[in-house]
Specification:
The chain is an alpha/beta fold and about 350 residues long. It is about 35% helix and about 20% strand. It has an eight-stranded parallel beta barrel, surrounded by six helices. A hairpin with a 4-residue loop joins strand 2 and strand 3. It is globular, with a radius of gyration of 21 Å. The two termini are about 35 Å apart. Bound molecules: phosphoenolpyruvate (PEP) and manganese (II) ion (MN). The site of manganese (II) ion (MN) has 5 residues, from loops.
Length: about 350
């Protein structure tokens, strides 16, 4: 439920509303307009509250029940776009944001070289996995903490913020057969500028809670990927978990969903329509990952540009100087010249869409 106040409502009226909400043991969230608090959110079980109890308070304009199951992340609750500042790069604002880099960090030289190349191509952030949630336990699992250190060095040398994934509790096997015992979440949070939740983990609710609490304390934004079989509502509820548990800075990332399509043509089905739906339904930034959606490098450009036309606030693209030798996802990885072309075209499309 939200209570809309008249413009320039007095603090006394706002306090009266808050006092009444607290009687119902609900949580209160205030949203500042230009001059005063113009919206008061009521969160929790509001089913027993008669909206009329607020109408009689001075300066209350209207009381609206939020019809969506996801509350805080809905546009109904807060119509203003949430703009997330990542070390000066604004995600969800008027400008497109481009994140790029390898699927996996493979060595210090590799991530630094790619970091420099993607910067030259016009990207604003470096992506790369140190902990890889692979479908097979025998596939390359990433470098673990060593990878995070290389990523931090790439940030230092390029000045670009970094985004990397945290898996849940993970017994991380290293190349020499020994196991890294550190808490992955804590470890990733001590290095990264944005913490990624992968498609496979986006329904691990306990993990989302822990991640929200810990990243919220450090004010590190979350890049949440859509689960390959999550509905749009389930995806938004996963984001709601993070916001409700203490981190309001969530970037929604579409990356394709599983349909009856065969992998020989496309790895997943690009959920382009969902881009526009999410922009309408939610106030959070929406970015698109055309690499995982398409699964093949010759399709990445088409999907990337289509998602920008559908309203995406940015793109996250897998890039490598030698995609054919990448340790993971090489077949969907582009070189920096293609990345540059995609960025240039995306900027034109954004201008054209207005
Ligand atoms: C990735 O970003 O490399 C990745 C594993 O993505 P997803 O979780 O979307 O499969
Ligand atoms: Mn990948």
């Amino acid at each position: 439920m939200i209570i809309r106040m008249k413009s320039r409502a007095s603090q006394a009226s706002v306090d009266k509303v808050i006092e009444r909400i607290k009687k119902y043991k609900c949580e209160v969230e205030t949203i500042h307009g230009r001059e005063s608090i113009d919206v008061i959110g009521v969160l929790g079980d509001t089913s027993g509250i008669d909206p009329n109890v607020f109408n009689e308070i001075d300066e209350v304009l209207e009381v609206i029940r939020i019809s969506r199951p996801y509350k805080r992340v809905s546009r109904e609750y807060n119509a203003n776009n949430r703009i997330i500042d990542v070390k000066g790069v604004k995600v969800g604002g008027p400008d497109l944001v481009f994140m790029a880099g390898p699927c996996s960090i493979e060595s210090e030289e590799q991530i630094i070289r790619i970091g420099k190349e993607i910067k030259q191509s016009g990207a604003h952030m470096i992506r790369g996995g140190a902990y890889k949630p692979r479908s097979s336990p025998y596939s390359y699992q990433g470098l673990g903490e060593e990878g995070l250190k290389y990523m931090a060095e790439a940030r230092k040398q390029t000045g670009l913020p970094i985004v990397t994934e945290a898996t849940g509790t993970h017994r991380h096997l290293l190349a020499d057969g020994s196991a890294e015992q550190k808490n992955v979440l804590e470890n990733v949070l001590s290095y990264t500028d944005i913490i990624q939740v992968g498609a496979r983990n986006s329904k691990s609710y306990g993990f989302l809670q822990d991640l929200a609490i810990e990243s919220g304390k450090k004010k590190i934004p979350v890049l949440l990927k859509r689960g390959e079989a999550s509905t749009i509502s389930e995806f938004l509820l996963a984001a709601e978990y993070i916001v409700a548990n203490g981190n309001p800075d969530v970037i929604l990332c579409l990356r394709g969903i599983r349909t009856f399509e065969e992998k020989k043509f496309q790895r997943y089905t690009a959920d382009i329509t969902a881009t526009a739906v999410l922009k309408r339904e939610s106030n959070l930034p929406v970015i698109f990952d055309p690499s995982h959606a398409a699964g093949y490098r010759d399709l990445v450009e088409h999907v990337a540009l289509a998602s920008v036309a559908a309203g995406a606030d940015g793109l996250i693209i897998e890039a490598h100087y030698e995609p054919e030798n990448a340790m993971s996802d090489g077949q969907q990885t582009v070189k920096s010249d293609v990345l540059k072309r995609i960025i240039e075209k995306a900027l034109k499309i954004k201008k054209c869409m207005g």
